[in-house]
Design goal:
The protein is an all-alpha fold. It has two helices and no strands. The relative contact order is 0.10.
């Protein structure tokens, strides 16, 4: 078995690069998780307030239509935030899958 200094140096460089990449990945995952949670709080407020206003019978048809757009947009953004959190959880290996019976006709 012949090993020269170049082989050892390349292996050492590869390991250093791998450690650096892992550190960068952890920072990215922490950032995604933090941003996702920070987005969720105001989104829940937007969705909750629009729900509350939509339940008010004195709200006119035009305003109701606008509130439905706001609510729908908030729900769509909430799905994206959930996806970001799930992506970070998969990367962190903390993503949990729960088995449950599902009626396919209702899906």
């Amino acid at each position: 078995l012949l090993v020269n200094e170049t082989d050892v140096s390349e292996l050492s460089d590869a390991r250093a690069s791998q450690r650096e990449l892992l550190a960068e990945t952890r920072v990215k995952e922490k950032f995604l998780t933090a941003v996702s949670h920070e987005l969720r709080t105001p989104l829940n407020g937007i969705i909750g307030l629009s729900d509350s206003l939509l339940s008010d019978p004195s709200v006119g048809a035009h305003t109701r239509s606008l509130l439905q757009v706001i609510r729908s947009s908030g729900l769509q953004l909430n799905v994206l935030v959930d996806d970001l959190i799930d992506t970070a959880a998969v990367s962190n290996k903390t993503f949990l899958i729960h088995k449950a019976d599902v009626c396919l006709a209702s899906v």
